[in-house]
Amino acid sequence: MDTAIVAALGATAGFAGGDVITALLVRKVSAKAGFLLLSCLKLFLYVPFAVLLWREFQVIDGQTIAWILLLGALFATAYWGFNRALEVSKNPALAGVVAGCFPASASFVAIVFLGQRPSVATIVLLCTVLVGVILIGLADNWRASLRLDKGIALALIPLVCWGVFGALLHEPVQHLRTPHAWFVVQVMVAAFVAVSVGLLYHRQAPGILSQTRRKRAWWLVLGAGLAIGLSELLQAFALGSGQQIVIIEAVLGGYPAVYFLIAHHVFKEPLVLRQWLGIALAAISIVLLSVLGASI
């Protein structure tokens, strides 16, 4: 099997497993703990690799920095919404599935703002993802009140922001044109997020650290941080290889299904048939969207 495909498989499994551990962390401690500690730990993991590739960071110019600021703001907003969704949702398994549908919103951004012309199949698949998300998120009493569960509503933030992030990510990567441009941009975004979160929570940081230690949740921080950080490295390697992109995008697009299988086993939340159908529709449609997008 191609090395890039193996890396994509590892990234998909790592993202899913890491996000489930994140859900355990934010529900045991707080969303602030997940947001602050994981953002900082992930950046720390990148330092050795950044030192090895330091020469590529020297080509960063003002235009790249502008893109980094925009992408960093999008990623930080998405990650905040993701942690909050996992914290307050009645069913964190479903919240993660909805957040993981961001490839669909990325396709929408590419169509509306980047001038890409969608095929009929793409339009159908985007509509199918939307239907799937609605089926997942409607409350049990949806016939009386068409309101989403609060956690599912918060999960719409990463769904949109990560989608916009993914649609725009290639802009600074293409501008840099270095062998490891994906990694360079990724590290810069991670640095922006870590610094921003650190400034936002600098007064609350001692309390967050104390609460995490008191609840014996450091193993969750380390587990989630390692899994997500390494998965981002594997994803950057796979996408940066330039080979087997169709298969790689399809594998990465399967994240919602993999996350749900793990999260549902861990949290054991009951689901109705409508939600099972929504998960299936969203997951299959995203894989197909990934294949169509990568084949263009």
Give the helix level as a range of percent: over 70%
Net shape: globular
Main sheet makeup: none
Tell me the radius of gyration.
19 Å
* Total domain modules: 1
Order of helices and strands: HHHHHHHHHHHHHHH
Low-confidence stretches: 142-146
Number of strands: 0
Mean pLDDT: 81
Structural class: mainly alpha
Strand content range = under 5%
Report on the structure:
The protein is an all-alpha fold. The protein has one domain (3-295). The protein contains 15 helices and no strands. α1 crosses α4 (62-88) and α4 runs antiparallel to α9 (170-176). The radius of gyration is 19 Å and the shape is globular. The two termini are 23 Å apart. The model is unreliable at 142-146 (pLDDT under 50).
